[in-house]
């Protein structure tokens, strides 16, 4: 037994030494270019657009009916009204209640999901190929002739209030709401959450009024990707939608985000961590600099191997999951770094984040470092779009931002052409600490002095 025990100890020691020696991963291959499958586009007289993309060998079709309206068309006192509309729409159509609708979609091998984003309300499903046209028929009825069962409204509003309470109990939600409110004060992008009173006030008249004002053929695109018969799909879409009212033109109010150099601390007494969001308004994908800025973001804080992550996570141990994001809105964008950091290191974390930004402004990254980021981003891009859902996502992205297909097709080549000098240039031009808004949710007593020492000349508000 003693010999076995000594052997086990030696084995554990050897394994520990091996684990401590960080090995480099094998070198990856050359990134492959993205190929957009051929698509067929049909325009109906009422303005509705059908986009069909035969793709893959699996006998399934993914269908997404996207109406170009969402939270962006809500009023300041109507936050989440479109979400409530979508929840009520899922309760069925003139000929099907929620259970019949669910059973009907399940029999086709799928389910119906209705979701809302700032720019789009979408009905989505994936079904067996033989049921493609049947699924479109059901989705058309739900969209055009929703049941609007008033008996379900109170239940759905109570669910929404409960979800709101859960969200607002999280420091990350509080920080996001405050941050985007500062940047988009007078625009729906800044209205993250409603109040309980607001939700309680919504009635069926509000929902139907929003529907009548914002839904129609001119705002609708139907994407069908996968294995299906294009001629039969077009025939079905014409039968289901040609008589639909044209409705309003697309209306996305353009935001004018505010650049504010200030700090806000939201008190969370005795919190062991501080949740921070630190960023500023920037460009949208229609800008020629966007792709280079996107790669800059990945190198600086937007990937697991980024500089900020390596600094405050790996080297300092201040946080577990820091991350920077480049958020794309219509005709505007936002860059920000977010992290949950140990309270006592709040100031130190912010100092290191600023230091990494300034370092990248002042000196170009090495070719080796940049090549690793470019290979990673190019590979992720191609991988994400190798599915019907990914293709629909990219086509919808192009549509929202008014981009040509060449933006997708040439993206990998354009990523690989980005130089180290461009990375420093993008950081100087768009990621400027002197123009950033900082939101901290944490124990004010513990962090305020740290923040004052780090941001001595900044405006700090409660």
Describe the structure.
The chain has 462 residues and is an alpha+beta fold. 46% of the residues lie in helices and 17% in strands. The chain contains 18 helices and 12 strands. A 6-stranded mixed beta sheet has the order 1-2-6-3-5-4, with helices on both faces. A 6-stranded mixed beta sheet has the order 9-10-8-11-7-12, with helices on both faces. A hairpin with a 4-residue loop joins strand 4 and strand 5. The longest helix is centred in the first third of the chain and has 19 residues.
At a glance:
The protein has about 450 residues and is of the alpha+beta class. Helices cover about 45% and strands about 15% of the residues. It folds into two domains: about 200 residues, 2-Layer Sandwich (Cytochrome Bc1 Complex, Chain A, domain 1), CATH 3.30.830.10; about 200 residues, Metalloenzyme, LuxS/M16 peptidase-like (Cytochrome Bc1 Complex, Chain A, domain 1), CATH 3.30.830.
Features:
alpha+beta; 462 residues; Cytochrome Bc1 Complex, Chain A, domain 1; six-stranded mixed sheet; single chain; globular; disordered N terminus; 2 domains
């Amino acid at each position: 037994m003693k010999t076995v025990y000594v052997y086990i100890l030696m084995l554990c020691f050897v394994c520990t030494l091996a684990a401590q020696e960080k090995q480099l991963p094998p070198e990856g291959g050359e990134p492959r270019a993205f190929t957009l499958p051929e698509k067929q586009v049909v325009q109906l007289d009422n303005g509705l657009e059908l986009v069909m993309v035969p793709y893959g060998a699996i006998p399934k079709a993914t269908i997404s009916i996207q109406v170009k309206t969402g939270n962006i068309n809500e009023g300041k006192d109507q936050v989440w009204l479109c979400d409530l509309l979508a929840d009520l729409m899922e309760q069925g159509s003139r000929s099907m209640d929620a259970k019949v609708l669910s059973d009907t979609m399940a029999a086709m091998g799928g389910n119906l999901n209705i979701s809302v984003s700032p720019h789009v309300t979408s009905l989505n499903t994936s079904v067996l190929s033989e049921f493609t046209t049947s699924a479109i028929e059901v989705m058309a009825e739900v969209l055009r002739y929703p049941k609007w069962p008033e008996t379900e409204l109170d239940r759905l509003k109570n669910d929404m209030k409960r979800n709101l309470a859960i969200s607002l109990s999280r420091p990350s939600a509080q920080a996001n709401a405050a941050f985007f409110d500062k940047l988009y004060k007078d625009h729906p992008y800044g209205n993250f959450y409603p109040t309980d009173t607001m939700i309680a006030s919504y009635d069926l008249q509000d929902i139907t009024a929003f529907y009548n004002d914002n839904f129609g053929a001119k705002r609708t695109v139907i994407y069908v990707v996968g294995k299906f018969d294009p001629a039969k799909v077009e025939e079905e879409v014409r039968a289901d939608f040609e008589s639909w009212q044209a409705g309003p033109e697309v209306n996305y109010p353009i935001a004018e985000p505010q650049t504010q150099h200030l700090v806000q601390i939201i008190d969370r007494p005795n919190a062991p961590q501080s949740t921070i969001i630190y960023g500023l308004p920037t460009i949208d994908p229609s800008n020629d600099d966007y792709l280079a800025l996107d790669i800059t973001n990945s190198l600086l804080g937007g990937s697991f191997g980024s500089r900020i992550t390596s600094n405050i996570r790996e080297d300092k141990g201040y946080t577990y999951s820091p991350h920077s994001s480049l958020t794309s809105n219509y005709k505007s964008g936002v860059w920000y770094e977010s992290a949950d950091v140990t309270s006592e290191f709040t100031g130190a974390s912010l100092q290191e984040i600023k230091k990494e930004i300034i370092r990248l402004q002042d000196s170009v990254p090495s070719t080796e470092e940049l090549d690793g980021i470019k290979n990673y981003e190019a590979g992720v891009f191609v991988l994400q779009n190798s599915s019907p859902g990914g293709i629909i996502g990219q086509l919808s992205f192009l549509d929202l931002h008014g981009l040509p297909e060449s933006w997708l097709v040439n993206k990998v080549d354009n990523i690989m052409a980005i130089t180290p000098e461009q990375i420093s240039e993008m950081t100087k031009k768009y990621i400027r600490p002197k123009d950033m808004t900082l939101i901290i949710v944490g124990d004010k007593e513990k962090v305020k002095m740290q923040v004052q020492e780090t941001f001595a000349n900044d405006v700090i508000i409660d």
